[in-house]
Amino acid sequence: MQVEDLLRAVPSGQLYGPEIKGEITQLVNDTRNLVPGCAFVAIKGLQFDGHTAVDQVAAAGAKLMVVEVLPENWQDYPLSFFLVPSTFRAQALLANQFFGRPTEQLNVVAVTGTNGKTTISSLISDLLMRLGHKTGLIGTLHYKVDQTYYPSINTTPNALALQQLFAEMVSVGCQDALIEASSHALALGRLWATDIDCAIFTNLTREHLDFHKTMEGYAYAKSLLFAQLGQKFAGEGPRLAIINADDPYASIMMQATSADVLTYSLEDPKASAYADQLAVQDGNQTFRLHYRNQTYQVVSPMLGAYNVANFMAAFLCLVDYYHVQPQTVVELMLSFGGVEGRMQRLDLGQAFQVVVDFAHTPDAIERVLQELKAQSPKRLVTIIGHSGGNRDSGARPEIGDKVFEHSDWIIFTADNPRHEPVAKICTELIGNHDEVPYEVIEDRKAAIDYVISQAQAGDLLVFAGKGSEPYQIIGDDKLPYDEVTEIEAAVARHFG
Fold this sequence. Notes:
Layout: H1 3-7, E1 14-16, E2 27-28, E3 39-41, H2 54-59, E4 64-67, E5 80-83, H3 87-98, E6 107-112, H4 117-130, E7 135-138, E8 143-145, E9 148-150, H5 159-171, E10 176-180, H6 183-187, E11 198-201, H7 209-212, H8 215-228, E12 240-244, H9 250-256, E13 260-265, E14 273-281, E15 284-291, E16 294-300, H10 305-321, H11 326-333, E17 344-345, E18 353-357, H12 362-373, E19 380-384, H13 396-406, E20 409-412, H14 422-430, E21 438-440, H15 444-453, E22 460-464, E23 471-474, E24 477-480, H16 483-495
Parallel strand pairs: 2-3, 3-4, 4-5, 6-10, 6-11, 7-10, 11-12, 12-13, 13-14, 18-22, 19-20, 19-22, 20-21
Antiparallel strand pairs: 1-5, 7-8, 8-9, 14-15, 15-16, 17-18, 23-24
Helix pairs in contact: 3-5, 4-10, 8-9, 12-13, 13-14, 15-16
C-alpha cells in the first residue's frame, strides 16, 4: 500500500523524515515480525515500549515508524516517523485501512457481557452455517475463518490482528463475523474502526475489577460497544442493539447507543422477546417464547434459565438482523450441539455424571450449580479454583459462598494461579466455611484423578473454571492443558 493511502486514515498524524518511496509491505507492532519495507507501530505495553526499538526497526529495513514521541535524533535514521497522539488509536485506524476496511464487507455481530458471549456467538454462527452462510468467529474458544481454526490468544485480539482476521474472512468469502467483545478490548480500543452492525449485551457481574477497579468502570467499558454502534454507516443494513432487559446495567447500554434497541427478558412480558413456562423434559430445556404477538414452543438442548436468555439474544439477532423466519430458528435449535466447555457432559460409560463448564465468576458458578443441583444427584461434587491469580482476589469469598451453598463435596485446586500460591487462593475461597466436606489438592491433574477415583454411582461431578481453555498459567508459563483429556484419562484408569 502506498504510504499516502495508508496515512490518510489518521488525519491527526504528522510525517517526519525522508520521502517514502515504494509501497508499505506490511504493518506490524511486534519487533519479531519486522520485515523490509514495513511500517512499525510503537505500542507502550506493560513489559515493553516499542518506542525503544527504533534502532532495531531501522536495522530491519522498515520504512516507517508510528510513534507518540519522536526520537531525539530522528533525523539520523533512514526511515520516516509518523507522529500521532495515540499509537493505540492509530494502530486500529491504520490496520483497518491497510487491510482494505474489511468489516465494511461483512455483517459484524459483537457480543459483550460477563457471561454468555461464547454461547451466543457460537449459536448464531452455527445456525447461520446451517443456513448456508460462511462465517468467521472470534472469541474465547478459537478464531474461526470459515473452516480454518486458529488458537485464541485473547478473547478479542489486538486491532492489527483483528483486522487481519477480518481481511482473511473476506478473502475466503465469509459473509458474517461473530465477535466476543471483551471489556479489556473495548477499554483498550481494539475494536476501533470496526464497522459493527449488531451488538448484544448479556449481563454484568463481578469480574476483571483488577483492571476496571469498579463495577461502574466495568459497565462503562461495556457501554463503549454500544456508543460505537451506529456511528458508521458504510453499509445499507440496520444497526441493531440487543439488550438483556433483566440486567441492572441494561439502561446504561441503551443510553449509550443511537441504534435501534430490542430487548429480551425472563421477567418482563413487554420485552421484544419474552420466555416463560420453563421446564426440563427428556433432558432438554423447554419454554414458551413470545415474540411479536406470536408464541413459539421451544425445545433446546441447552439447560438452564441463563441459556434460555442466551437463546433469546441469538433469536433476536437471527430474526431481526438476518431476517430468518422465527420458526426456522426454533427448529434449527433442536439440533444445536452445544458449546465445548459450556455445560459439556462427558459420557464415558461411567455410573456418575461429569460436567465441564467454564464458570469462573460468582454469578456463573451459582447458575451452573443451581441448575445441576435441581437434577437431584446423589452428591453434587464441585472441583474448582480461581482463574484470577494475581488478579481480582476480592471475588474469591463470594465464589466460595456459592460453592459451599450448592455443593455436597468440594475439591479446591489450581486454575490459573500465575505467581500466587495456590494454597493462598484456596484459603481465600474457603473463608470460614466448614459446613460441607472439602479438600485442597493444589495440582489440578492430581485433583481430577483423586475425585474420579472417589466418585460414586449417582454422583454429579462439576469441573468448573477451565472449560475448554487449552492452557494453565503457572508463574510466567502458559502450559498446555486440556480438562476433558485429563478427565477421560482418569476415568479410564479407575473405571476402564
